[in-house]
Specification:
214 residues, alpha+beta, globular, 4-stranded mixed sheet
Amino acid sequence: MTTTDRITLYYSPQTRATGARVLLEELRAPYDLHVLNAKAGEQRKDAYLAVNPLGKVPAIRHGEALVTEQVAIYIYLADLFPQAGLTPALDDPRRGPYLRWIAYYGSSFEPAVIDHFMKREPAPITMSPYADYDTMLGALEAQLAKGPYLFGDKITAADILWGIAFNWTMTFGIVPKRDVFVRHAERITSRPAYQRVTAADQEMAAAHAAAAGV
């Protein structure tokens, strides 16, 4: 599936939406930003809650399609622009593992790191979506040890998702700086797309803080 329609990315700097913007840059996709000042609470106002009732970014609009949830956005965008080579085709043997490790981010990694950060007692292992924190990280470490990317030598959208996630979680001490995580994060954050978006984010975040008086 290809398109010339522009993507609208609902966006706030230095949030999970940063990764979606990096992916759009990597895909060379035509897109516009609908910027929300999170420091002023714009993501909690009625106008945006009509887009995403959870008040979270990112979200994207593409024609009549509205997509929320970070994992869904990555899958949708990478499939929309297959010419960028960041998604395995349906008949590619990597397709199943690719979907597995993208889904793992939302279903296991995020719940685990939030519980860990908040120092919350996890659910019993038979009920927890991520088994336990150490097991969850161990599975990731084993997959990345096959490197340099999740599926060998070829980067995919899943690597962009994970590299940015490792970068911010290690920065805040939520995830330990294991060698494979550090190397993977560095491969993604050294790319020109990430560098461009990060520089733009710093400028935008400073403007938002000034506008919100914080």
